[in-house]
Every structure is written in structure tokens, then in C-alpha cells.
Amino acid sequence: MPTVQAGIPTPVETRPLSGAVVRRKPRPVNSLVTFLPFIVLIGAMILMTRSAKKKQQAAVQMRDQMTPGTGVRTIGGMYATVKEVNDDTVLLEIAPAVHAVYAKNAIGAVLEDEEYNRIVHGTETPVVPDDASSLTLDKGGDEAPKLDLGKKDAEEGEDAAADETKDAAADEVKDAKDAKGDGEAGAK
Question: What is d(CA 171, CA 174) in angstroms, rounded to the nearest whole number?
């Protein structure tokens, strides 16, 4: 049996069928291959924490841009106007003469004035088309008929089949009533 002294493996003796003693050295373990998974894992952790730190710094910078009169969206999805900015809190006007105090961390986005007005007040800026062809009216009469992509044909077929089954069921009920009226014992 091989012995280990101070962490150094000794050669292993084996005896082949011929009876001669053959000494084999144990294979050295490549330390780089052993630690490669750990190195990759540590590298991935460093990259993930770095990107998370960048996102966190961007959020802090965005929250520092808040000034009174700025439109914001909270992390809960509420739109409001900033009235006052403190160290850790923000006073928001949710509706006219309705104010609420929020933590700065509860602000999800600081909106541009145009975007805030579009969302809150419904003011749309006119959309200018890329080309002028959609602005002109074509009086040539070369319009192709519009295709109706609805399921009217399939629904009509299903309605007709349903009507037929209802009619057949009504006929059966009527025949059953007529049969009872012909002097049977159960007829009323």
C-alpha cells in the first residue's frame, strides 16, 4: 500500500503476471484544471456585482435630478408632480391640492415634461408621417376591396348547425307529446 509522507505521494509498486516489480509514479493533478471552475465562478460574481452597482448608481443619479415641478412615476405606478425634495423624502402632488410624502427610493422614474403631460393629461403631439403619400387623397378609384378577416363564415356554419340540432330536439319533444295524447295511460 502506498504511503504518504508530508503530502508527497510515493511511487506505487505493482506486480505484473511475470512477477517482476514495476514502479509507477502517480499522475500529477493539474492545479489549474482543479481551480478553473472556481475561477470562472468568482469572475461571474464580480461581473454581476459590477453591473448591479452601475444600475444602482444610475438610479441614485436619476433621483438626484428631481426638482420641484418635475413629473415622476413611483415604483407602484402612480404619476405625480414633485413639490418639495428633502434628504430622504419627496413631497408629491398626486392630484390638485392632494399631497403625499414618499421615500426617494419609491421613485421609479423621473419623466420629461412632454412624456409626463402625454401620460397624465392625455396631450398627444401630432405624428408626422415619413412620406407625404398618406396625406393625399387618391381619387382614381383604384382602391382594392378591403378584406374582412373575421370568422363570419365559420360562425354562420356553426350557427346553422346549432339551429338544426335545436329544431331536431324540438321535433322530438313535440312527437313525444303527440304520442302521449293518443290515449295512452300516462296522457293527461
Answer: 5
